[in-house]
Design goal:
By secondary structure, this protein is mostly beta strands. It is 7% helix and 50% strand. A 14-stranded antiparallel beta barrel has the order 1-2-3-4-6-9-10-11-12-13-14-15-16-17.
């Protein structure tokens, strides 16, 4: 009974505040690079395939699950990259779902021998759905359980188009970029109201503060610092993190909720562990809640799998687009 009431309150909040909704956020930002920024399309050896899964607040069953799948390719002869990204986010017992499928393009400009700029774009299809028959309305809740379902008011699932753009500047050891998403403000109301998805601004960057290489310039040990700031509607979030890579393992720690730079001060501490081979990257992270919800949510689990491969000849490898020094998770 208590869980049913929790589900009802959560879903009511989501539906009432749809015009102020936020996109799901992955803690392993760089393991889902195309989601972070279209500028990362093609920033790989040649081909890259990525799978990401996030389970938000598992202590409240069925609340937030987010899935992402992407594929991108480096077009070395054109200093470009292309990709496709699909995300599916589902929330609550009513299966309130958001699906995005986008086509991505980026181009790499050589400013000089050290610095590069990569603008990127993402054209996507947006779909919002809800299984209203699974919802429990206030009129159905009684002291002995729930009364029979009522006939739900008619509504339409929402389909629209959307657009994102980005830019990334980097050299051998530092990077910084921004992304502007939902520039077409897709509709997000089931009843034809004016509610839309608010524009999201994302700024990210970092630097390698320690780097050791060995034969053929393969990285053996790297220590990196990174930051990520997001603003969408009236909400904003800041993350500051540290990565340590010692071939083949990578460890990371993030602090989410920097004072004066986030809506929720002291939100979470995120721990990360991963393994990186020449082709396969596997990562796991856990968000440990440190806010007032510490005993209620169960944090968040996230798993990523990235597979990179190529069939370039030796001559083509010399033309390969310069790699970006950001972490892989």
């Amino acid at each position: 009974m208590v869980k049913r009431i929790i589900y009802f309150l959560v879903m009511s909040f989501i539906i009432i505040s749809d015009s102020f909704g936020q996109d799901p956020t992955f803690s392993q930002f760089y393991a889902n690079a195309l989601y972070l920024s279209p500028s990362f399309a093609g920033a790989t050896s040649e081909y890259r395939f990525a799978l990401n899964y996030r389970n938000q607040w598992p202590a409240v069953p069925g609340v937030f699950h987010t899935y992402s799948i992407s594929f991108d390719k480096a077009l070395t002869n054109f200093n470009s990259g292309i990709g496709v990204l699909a995300t599916y986010d589902v929330a609550g017992s009513g299966n309130l779902s958001t699906t995005n499928i986008g086509l991505i393009y980026s181009y790499d400009f050589n400013v000089n021998k050290e610095w590069h700029i990569r603008p990127g774009i993402n054209f996507k299809f947006y779909y919002l759905g809800l299984d209203i028959n699974k919802l429990i309305f206030n009129s159905q809740i009684t002291g002995s359980g729930t009364s029979p379902s009522v006939t739900p008011p008619p509504f339409d699932n929402v389909a629209d188009v959307d657009f994102a753009t980005s830019a990334l500047v980097y050299n051998e050891r530092t990077w910084a970029g921004f992304t502007l998403d939902h520039l077409l403000k897709p509709k997000t109301s089931f009843y034809g109201n004016d509610a839309t998805v608010p524009v999201k601004f994302n700024f990210y960057g970092g630097a390698q503060i320690l780097k050791k290489t060995r034969l053929r310039q393969k990285m053996q040990e790297v220590l990196s610092v990174a930051l990520n700031f997001q603003k969408q509607g009236k909400f904003y979030q800041s993350d500051l993190g540290l990565y340590y890579y010692k071939d083949p393992l990578i460890f990371g720690i993030w602090y989410r909720g920097i004072p004066f730079a986030t809506s929720q001060v002291g939100d979470a501490i995120i721990g990360l562990i991963g393994i990186k081979t020449s082709q396969l990257h596997i990562g796991y992270s856990y968000d440990f809640t440190i806010s007032s919800l510490i005993g209620s949510t169960g944090g968040a689990h996230e798993i990523s799998l990235v597979y990179e491969f190529n069939n370039l000849s030796l001559g083509q490898q010399k033309k390969r687009i310069r790699s970006i020094p950001c972490p892989e998770f």
